[in-house]
Amino acid sequence: MPLDYPAPIQRLIVQLKSLPGIGPRSAERMALWLLQAGRERVLPLAAALKGISEQVERCEDCGFFLELNAPCLLCTDAKRNRHIICVVEQAADVLRLERSRAFQGQYHVLGGKLSPLDNVTPEDLRIESLARRVVELPATEVILALSSDVEGEATAHYLADALRHTQTSISRLAQGMPAGGNLDHVDELTLYQALQGRRVV
Ligand SMILES: [Zn+2]
Question: 33 C-alpha vs ligand 1 centroid, how far in Å?
Answer without folding.
Answer: 38
